[in-house]
């Protein structure tokens, strides 16, 4: 499967805040989150320094990714934590894996 769109989760250094998003370029998007955390504190990810990638899921179609993002956003924190742990058991920062 060729993934053109991604649902992703980034967090802060302490892993206390989660940001869930959709993108067609996960590398560029995580870089934008980093830039926002350094320069533009008005965005959610920038305000809470969420730029550490801990989860991603690929999709062929934008609509599928958007539906999945909305589904995950509705979940309680505990369920989101379980999703992340299943994908990334040690909650390692994956930013270097996507470049």
From TrEMBL:
SUPFAM superfamilies documented for this protein: GIY-YIG endonuclease
Residue ranges annotated for the GIY-YIG domain, each copy included: 3-82
A UniProt-annotated Pfam family: GIY-YIG
Recorded family membership: Belongs to the UPF0213 family.
Name this protein carries in UniProt: GIY-YIG nuclease family protein
Organism per entry: Pseudotenacibaculum haliotis
């Amino acid at each position: 499967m060729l993934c053109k769109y991604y649902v992703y989760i980034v967090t802060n250094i302490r892993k206390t805040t989660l940001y869930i998003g959709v993108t067609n370029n996960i590398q560029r998007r995580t870089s934008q989150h980093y830039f926002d955390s350094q320069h533009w504190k008005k965005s959610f990810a920038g305000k809470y320094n969420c730029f550490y990638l801990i989860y991603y899921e690929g999709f062929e179609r934008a609509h599928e990714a958007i539906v999945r993002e909305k589904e995950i956003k509705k979940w309680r924190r505990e369920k989101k934590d379980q999703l992340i742990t299943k994908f990334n058991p040690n909650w390692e920062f994956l930013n270097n894996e996507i470049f």
